[in-house]
Design brief:
Blueprint (H helix, E strand, L loop, with lengths): L20 H10 L17 E2 L2 E2 L25
Antiparallel strand pairs: 1-2
Length: about 80
Amino acid sequence: GHYCFVVVDGRQKDYSKGMLLPELADVFEELGCKAAYNLDGGGSALMMFNNERYSQQSNGANRELGDILVIRESENIE
């Protein structure tokens, strides 16, 4: 009943070496995930939580994104 979210920063000198898909699959297996989805990769991959950035885009700058995945508590609408 838990969710795991993983972002892998791309290859960046002196910061990150990136990850191949089989390596990413190993991470999810080690976390005990029963299903995993690779949503994106490259310079547009970005993870934020409570307005705090948890990754560094590999293209070195902010990039316009056409798609996002937002998870939040629902608001009671009456």
